Amino acid sequence: MSYAGYVTAAYAVFAAVLLWDFVAPRIRIAQVLRAVRLLARRQAARGDAPNELSR
Fold this sequence. Notes:
By secondary structure, the protein is an all-alpha fold. The protein has one domain (1-46). It has one helix at residues 4-46. It is rod-shaped and about 70 Å long. The mean pLDDT is 90.
C-alpha cells in the first residue's frame, strides 16, 4: 500500500494555504488603500480639510 497520493495531496494543500497566506493580506491592503484614496478624493472635491476630525 502506497501513501504517495496522500503525501502529494497534503503537500498540495500546504502549498495552496501558504500561497493564500501570502496573497490575501496584499489583496486586503490594496482594497484599503483604494478606499482611503477614494475618500481623500471625495473630501478634496468637497473642500473638506482631510486632517480635521469630524463627528
